[in-house]
Design goal:
This protein is α/β, with parallel strands linked by helices and 125 residues long. 44% of the residues lie in helices and 19% in strands.
């Protein structure tokens, strides 16, 4: 009666498993070559084109520590944007603010022709 010896088969399978486990991170690392851009100076012109609008927890809207309502915000943005259509509007809202308030601010900014719209969160104080 002939018995099949499974020990060599299991040994080879485990060795192949170990080889694949060691080689797979190396293969992934070799394929992910990312050439990131480098800069020696800070881009100050980009910050000049950004208008930061903060929507506070109580629903008040602030630009540079001055409070506005949704109705007066449009007049203020007209003054701040001027004739330049390259301005970026960044809305930083508290997490407890109703989304409708943020949408209203976006609607006003889009109506005035802002080049880009962004959304962020207020930093914890």
């Amino acid at each position: 009666m002939a018995d099949i010896n499974m020990v060599p088969f299991i040994d080879i399978t485990l060795i192949l498993l170990i080889i694949f486990m060691v080689m797979s991170p190396m293969l992934v690392q070799m394929q992910m070559n990312v050439d990131l851009p480098k800069s020696n100076s800070v881009n100050t012109t980009a910050e000049e084109n950004v208008i930061r609008i903060e929507v506070q927890k109580d629903g008040s809207i602030r630009i540079e520590n001055r409070s506005y309502t949704v109705k007066t915000l449009e007049k203020e943005l007209i003054l701040r944007m001027g004739k330049s259509s390259q301005k970026t509007i960044l809305v930083e809202a508290d997490k407890s603010v109703p989304i409708q308030t943020v949408v209203d601010v976006f609607d006003i900014a889009k109506k005035l022709g802002a080049a880009k719209l962004g959304i962020g969160v207020l930093a914890k104080n």
